Amino acid sequence: MKLITNQTNLKGTIEVPGDKSISHRSIMFGALAKGTTRIHHFLEAEDCLSTIEVFRKLGVKIERSDSEVVVHGVSGFQGLKKPESELYVGNSGTTIRLMMGILAGAQFDAVLTGDESIRKRPMNRVGIPLEKMGARIETKNDAGFAPVQLRGGNQLSGIHYEMPVASAQVKSAILFAALQAEGETVIHEKEKTRNHTEEMIRLFGGEIEEEGLTVKLSGNQSFTAQEVRVPGDISSAAFFIALGLLVPDSLIRLTNVGLNPTRTGILDVVEAMGGNLTKEASTFSGTIQVATSNLRGTTIEGSLIPRLIDELPIIALLATQAEGETVIRDAEELKVKETNRIDAVANELKKMGADITPTEDGLIIRGKTALHGAKVTSYGDHRIGMMLQIAALLVKEGEVELEKAEAVAVSYPDFFDVIESLID
Ligand code: S3P
């Protein structure tokens, strides 16, 4: 696909689609609750639709209309029915990993599998703690590649678990297993990761203690249906934050953006880079306004990384347009995302003229460099595809041809239309 290039003066107000992490979890808790859950501003994108399809195969009735998704809960984990075929998660790491936790205590067998990318991502990070809790799981190899075969009929018990990686998906899978286990579970994280599962447990009437890096909960909990309002996804807003900062003479307002502090690392980075960004926040969401800025390099590391892990590709683009050096470290998790995002970002931005060096756990980027036309690929990764479209807007000479552009539908099906709508 030929990308839009060479833009100035992009102005507009955008409401980005619903948060992906919260949309997945609202289906999951809605399915497990007693009663009918209504979800507003649900993310109608491939990943979250995969979660809906998986629950339908498990016997949960879910209706979709333009304004809401309605989930008819089955009153607990044991209300889920044995699926007649494999459970296909498409490209969605959140679906497969959280479903492993949800199905760990089922009375029936089930198989979880997904697309080519999913079948190359490590599931053992979830399988290992779940087996310690009493689940029986078989995978294709030692890394735990899908298909994941879950054997039913086990009674789970609580666990005290020290997380070896900072991952909300792993933490959430353990939490789902813990909710159906005998006794107490305590999880200690390496770094604080997004706490949407913890928040949903509380919203649906369950109990969990969250203190610093430790979460504690007891088993055999039950949930009551809720009305859920999903805020806009800050990870999708991030592309338009970058657009507003980088495209000359631009001013972008983003409304109803989710501002959970475990997700707002990108706002801290923009501030450190000297970006012109203002925020009006209410409790959970707010409006962000950005205007074209002269940026400077910064260092991104440590506890900041999980707070912006999905935004690192677009932050790398910001760094190519900032004066001086930007160092991203402690981000080895990028290697096991939808694609190896360290290599993908470095390869593709280099093709466009950026000065960028991949390292074992991040990237070193020297700015500022003019970007030029090139033939690039998303590697089938939605966030790489969207980052490259924002990069293309800065290209003054030559064309940018993007392979595998359709990947953006994983989290933002209207992305290219929204870009077009900003151009008059
Ligand atoms: C997610 C957690 C993160 C993130 C992913 C969504 C979630 O993954 O990258 O896009 O919804 O829990 P990890 O847990 O692998 O870091």
TrEMBL record:
Q: List the Pfam families hit by this protein, alphabetically.
A: EPSP_synthase (PF00275)
Q: How does it assemble?
A: Monomer.
Asked if the record carries the keyword Membrane, the reply is no
Matching Gene3D superfamilies: Enolpyruvate transferase domain (3.65.10.10)
What is this protein's record name?
3-phosphoshikimate 1-carboxyvinyltransferase
User: Pathway it acts in?
Assistant: Metabolic intermediate biosynthesis; chorismate biosynthesis; chorismate from D-erythrose 4-phosphate and phosphoenolpyruvate: step 6/7
Task: Report any one BP term from Gene Ontology.
Answer: chorismate biosynthetic process
